[in-house]
Design brief:
By secondary structure, the protein is an all-alpha fold. It has one domain: Up-down Bundle (Vanadium-containing Chloroperoxidase, domain 1), CATH 1.20.144. It is about 75% helix and about 0% strand. The chain is built from eight helices and no strands. Helix 6 runs antiparallel to helix 7 and helix 7 packs antiparallel against helix 8. The longest helix is centred in the first third of the chain and has 56 residues. The chain starts with 13 loop residues before the first helix and ends with a helix.
């Protein structure tokens, strides 16, 4: 039986093949590493942002429905009556001072100070997003107040002349939640020790809580207004805070 010679496919020189393989391998490793880093950062931070914001928005929606149905009235009146029974001239003076921490004027001035601190430390993207947060909450508050149209409480005489517009959600509570949450996150990133970071967040939480309580004590908001303001403010603050972290991490991996 006749035999035929084995047919072979010609190959490029071994050195060139190995060189091309090394180049492709390095490019693939570099590309996959970069893709993993980008997607890991975006996935982690955006997932956390979505979860926190979604929970806050869900809470606000549930509360808004209860408010519109009148289901929170008993709770609101009980809390306000309890506070009113313990009112005193000293507490009123304190509440009038604390409530200003949630006013746009105080928030804006504090924002300027924090912006200068961040600018000095080279955090210019953080400064921009800080003001997106502060200006954005003003429009969000006005939009929601007009949407729900809830009148301010008439449970007892107001202890402050500084109240106008609608009641739900509390604008001062929203301002405080957004401003002091964002301030705390941005400043804590530059803190030199874990203890200082914890102290920053504790101070922010205390200020936010005191502003909310002051609005109820002064008689210009129901407790449900304040809780709703905290929920919507937290959702907006989380969106802005995590945007800062995403930009920082992507820049660091760029």
């Amino acid at each position: 039986m006749p035999t035929y010679p084995e047919t072979r496919v010609p190959h490029p020189p071994g050195g060139l093949l190995r060189g091309m393989a090394r180049v492709v391998s390095r490019l693939t490793a570099w590309g996959l590493g970069r893709a993993r880093a980008v997607y890991a950062v975006l996935g982690l931070w955006l997932a956390l942002a979505f979860l926190a914001a979604a929970l806050a928005i869900w809470g606000f929606a549930e509360l808004a429905e209860e408010v519109m149905q009148g289901s929170t009235r008993r709770f609101d009146l009980a809390v306000m009556t309890w506070m009113n029974a313990r009112a005193s001239p000293g507490l009123t003076r304190l509440a009038l001072s604390l409530t200003q921490l949630g006013s746009w004027t105080v928030v804006a001035v504090t924002g300027l100070v924090v912006s200068a601190f961040l600018w000095i430390h080279g955090e210019r993207r953080a400064v921009a997003l800080l003001w997106v947060a502060l200006v954005g909450v003003t429009f969000l508050s006005a939009l929601l107040k007009d949407l729900f149209g809830r009148e301010r409480p008439a449970v007892f005489e107001w202890r402050t002349p500084y109240a106008g517009g609608r009641s739900f959600p509390s604008g001062h509570s929203m301002n405080a939640m957004v401003a002091y949450t964002v301030f705390a996150f941005l400043i804590a990133r530059l803190a030199s020790s874990p203890a200082l970071r914890r102290a920053t967040f504790l101070v922010a939480a205390a200020l936010i809580t005191l502003v909310g309580l002051s609005r109820i004590y002064l008689g210009v908001h129901y407790p449900s207004d304040v809780i709703a303001g905290f929920a919507t403010g937290f959702a907006w603050a989380m969106a802005c805070v995590f945007a800062v972290y995403v930009l920082r991490d992507l820049r660091g991996r760029g």
